[in-house]
Amino acid sequence: MTSANLVVSSGEVTALRLIDIAYSVDLAHAERLWTERGSTAFARSALKSTPQDAISFGVPPLWLSLGEIDVALASGSARGTLSVRLYDFGLAALSLRIRRGGLPWPSYVRDVADVDRRFGPASGTAFWNDLLERVQDAIRPSLERPTEGERLDEDHLVATVHAFNESMDAEGLMERVDLAEVLSGETRPLSRSARKELLSRSFSYYADDLVVLTWDRAFIYEPRGDSDVADVIEVANAQLVEWRYYDLLLDDELPRMYDQVEKARSTASLLASRRFAHLARGLYTLVAEVTELTERVENALQVTEDVYLARVYSSALSLFRVQSLSASVDRKLSIIRDTYAALYEEASSRRNEWLEIAIVVLIIVEIAISLVHA
Question: If we measure between CA atoms, which residue out of 249, 271, 275 comes closest to residue 260?
């Protein structure tokens, strides 16, 4: 039997767009504001199938329902469910989930491509920005320092199958269908090396489940329908957005810091120590703020005992280069820490110099007064 005879009995396609919206979000306040508006359903998120002592959210994000829409896909009209998950470190994860079933595998693949074309990175920002505006209008007072201007975002597409028209294990599935087509979006056959690279991050816990990760897509085969893999992938993407934000923030801050240090050094010596101290306080505040928020980002998901989800999560972080961005932020924070420490030392040194000069002047004045009296 070929892939054309294989039917997706139950599945879904989920388009995610994760957007940095604020310095932080007061989730309890946002929840109250959402209820006061008489808006649709909400809940504090929790992982569905995994014990809390094995893996859990650091601070459970706030899930809000945004209703449903009709979506025209290649295989016909479908109903899409809209929602957003708000993270306390200032990120909104918008989601469009479209259930699909009774489709031959090739039709399901075309629907995945259609969802990506209509709602993925190439689709622009209008659809997602309209959704985000609805959310922000309702919860704006809960946002601390909302992001102004262009926002950082990331997209991810998750294709999930819960059941086929026949019993299927992970090994048989990979032999029967070309998952590279789903994960790459390419209609032309890929080379053997490209397929191998694309499918290199494949994971299975039971014989009949499968997860395959790529940079901007994932395929999940989960017959029991109880996997938390999609949530883990979302958290890894959320961390990617935030680490990108802090990396760019510090990229902008470092040249400004160097300019301010040079200006402080060129200031008249009498005012230099005060300038140094003021600049050092500003840098200390920046380091404290960034450190606090990055700790929240790092602790967004706490994995202790679930080895399978830990492997998927760790692989996603590695694939998205989150560790590299985290290390880059740490290096830049270290430079700023060293700079404000040096500024405090220089400010203290300048104050001591003036204190010594003042003492010498007082001694000279006292000697002069003594001579006059003599």
Answer: 275
